[in-house]
């Protein structure tokens, strides 16, 4: 049975644990279409950049803000996606902050230190962490061998930790992370292609390098409610309500790549690399 909507039990689970996994959020045809574009689309390839972890291993990613009429844009604007985000964030207008195609290559794909996404977004000048979440969709199998995401269950209730540079990333203040690790359960988020993980902006998460010989690719889309107006972020996608499209439009788009006019992020524009 394909996914339709989140239940009140699932919403409650998100509030308790800070995350929820939805198996088969996308069907196989949708995954095939998206993964084909991820590896074949010129715009996605041309606008990719590398971020180094502390050991110099690199993760390739492509980040864009405004969702268009391409296949990825339609996915991030789909009724299934926006309704799920609405259920979890509650009242307000759902806006798409940005999406990132995470390309964690075999042997070279770098690690991500323990962090909260709001550790970054605070620096963009957002004031309401409860109005923000991320959705990770697996495009390939993600498991312990190829560096799947790890989350610290319930850590969103601890509030925002201080974040400091770790390589070109932001890492949460280590003594606090260690204390949190002693108190909470660490969960390896193993996903099949098409599974989705919805997670709160303050949940602590990390991933290890991909030392396997299989890629670990995923899409991470961040959403925000329009009242949460940031005072540093200049791109307005995060305060522009999403124009919702029917779920069927993803397959109907028949592998449409991103437009070269898309507002892709250039690495030198990344606020967390510039703001102290
Ligand atoms: O893809 C991963 O392993 C983690 C990425 C992440 O947490 C992020 O980009 O904020
Ligand atoms: Fe993150």
UniProtKB/TrEMBL annotation:
Signal peptide: none annotated. The keyword Oxidoreductase applies. Residues 96-225 form the Fe2OG dioxygenase domain. GO terms for molecular function: 2-oxoglutarate-dependent dioxygenase activity; iron ion binding. It comes from the Bacteria. Keywords: Dioxygenase, Iron, Metal-binding, Oxidoreductase. Belongs to the iron/ascorbate-dependent oxidoreductase family. This is Phytanoyl-CoA dioxygenase family protein.
């Amino acid at each position: 049975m394909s996914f339709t909507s989140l239940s009140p039990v699932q919403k409650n689970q998100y509030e308790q644990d800070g995350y929820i996994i939805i198996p088969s959020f996308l069907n196989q045809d949708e995954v095939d279409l998206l993964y084909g574009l991820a590896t074949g689309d010129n715009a996605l390839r041309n606008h990719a950049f590398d971020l180094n972890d502390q050991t110099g291993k690199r993760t390739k990613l492509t980040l864009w803000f405004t969702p268009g009429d391409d296949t990825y844009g339609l996915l991030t604007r789909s009724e299934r996606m926006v309704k799920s985000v609405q259920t979890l964030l509650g009242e307000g207008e759902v806006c798409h902050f940005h999406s990132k195609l995470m390309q964690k290559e075999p042997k070279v794909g770098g690690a991500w230190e323990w962090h909260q996404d709001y550790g970054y977004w605070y620096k963009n000048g957002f004031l309401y962490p409860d109005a923000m979440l991320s959705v990770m969709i697996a495009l390939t199998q993600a498991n312990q061998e190829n560096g799947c995401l790890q989350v610290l269950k319930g850590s969103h209730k601890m509030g925002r930790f201080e974040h400091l540079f770790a390589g070109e990333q932001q890492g949460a203040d280590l003594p606090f992370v260690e204390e949190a690790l002693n108190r909470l359960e660490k969960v390896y988020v193993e996903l099949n292609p098409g599974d989705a993980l919805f997670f709160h902006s303050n949940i602590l998460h990390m991933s290890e390098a991909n030392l396997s010989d299989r890629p670990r690719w995923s899409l991470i889309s961040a959403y925000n409610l329009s009242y949460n107006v940031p005072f540093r972020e200049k791109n307005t996608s995060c305060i522009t309500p999403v124009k919702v499209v029917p779920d069927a439009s993803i397959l109907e788009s028949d592998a449409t790549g991103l437009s070269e006019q898309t507002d892709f992020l250039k690495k030198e524009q990344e606020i967390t690399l510039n703001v102290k």
